[in-house]
Amino acid sequence: xxxxxxxxxxxxxxxxxxxxxxxxxxxxxxxxxxxxxxxxxxxxxxxxxxxxxxxxxxxxxxxxxxxxxxxxxxxxxxxxxxxxxxxxxxxxxxxxxxxxxxxxxxxxxxxxxxxxxxxxxxxxxxxxxxxxxxxxxxxxxxxxxxxxxxxxxxxxxxxxxxxxxxxxxxxxxxxxxxxxxxxxxxxxxxxxxxxxxxxxxxxxxxxxxxxxxxxxxxxxxxxxxxxxxxxxxxxxxxxxxxxxxxxxxxxxxxxxxxxxxxxxxxxxxxxxxxxxxxxxxxxxxxxxxxxxxxxxxxxxxxxxxxxxxxxxxxxxxxxxxxxxxxxxxxxxxxxxxxxxxxxxxxxxxxxxxxxxxxxxxxxxxxxx
Length: 368
Fold this sequence. Notes:
- The protein is of the alpha/beta class.
- It has a domain at 91-237 and 283-296 and 330-363.
- The chain has helices at residues 2-27, 42-58, 83-103, 122-135, 155-164, 176-189, 196-207, 227-231, 256-265, 299-309, 320-325, 346-351, and strands spanning 65-67, 76-78, 111-116, 142-147, 169-173, 213-217, 221-223, 240-249, 281-291, 331-332, 340-341, 354-356.
- A seven-stranded mixed sheet has the order 5-4-3-6-9-8-10. The protein has a three-stranded mixed sheet with strand order 7-12-11. It has a two-stranded antiparallel sheet with strand order 1-2.
- Strand 1 (65-67) and strand 2 form a beta hairpin.
- Helix 6 packs across helix 7 (196-207) and helix 6 crosses helix 10 (299-309).
- The protein is elongated, with a radius of gyration of 42 Å.
- Mean pLDDT is 79; it is low at 1-16, 18-26, 81-91 and 362-368.
């Protein structure tokens, strides 16, 4: 009886508590109120926008570091600080030099280097191209034109050189058209057999009019000087510029009495009206600067004519016929541009801007 009454009282005493809790939750008087976020200040929005803009502009700055893909640790490596500036200066200087070359006769702003090979040896052309590009301040403005036997059909030689000099401007050309032009003049005048490699420099611009100004150079040389400086030389009224080799005099190759007799009896336009200096230095045709726009049209005929009247049946080096055809008709280059042999004294070699070496032409072949 007592336990029953106790349970009844306990249950009676708990019911009001449940009711009170229910009333408290239903009324919601104890739930906290959520306040609205404060409005952002205008200056904060402006600063945030400016920060984003600054970050955007930073993307246009040059990179200062890079990661080497071969580095397993992927460390950041700083760039050379002078890389960007030197690249910009190189482009600016290249444009300035191109303008300078254009003003001095190079219509396209390119330094054209022409060479003629009697017998193909790509090693010789590689030495010439490498030394020229290495010594040039603007190698991107240098363009090579190599005339080789069967050049029009020889694609292999071109690709071999391109592998060595992938970024250079070069072309391989055939000799048939140039030889044909020389033979056309030769057959008309019944002259003695011409030496193509000596006459070719003056016929090449006839066959290839795009080569209006170029440097003709012997293939077996090492270039130490900057070809752009030579190319920018002002020729004035001359069409040809060549150095003079005073170790070879005209009197050593031509009889003075014969020369006087020719001068008295012939009235050809290429025969000098003034007496020839018997001790005149012979021009060195290993390096010649040619402006084709000023070349005399009868220059090739004059060379062939002199070879005939001097009875030059055997080839001599140098050919006095070329020297007489160019007598008083070429600009003398500075002595530093005269081709010197590598076997010369070290003092002479250091002063020269171009050196000749023995390349063994008798054993050259069409394969390499």
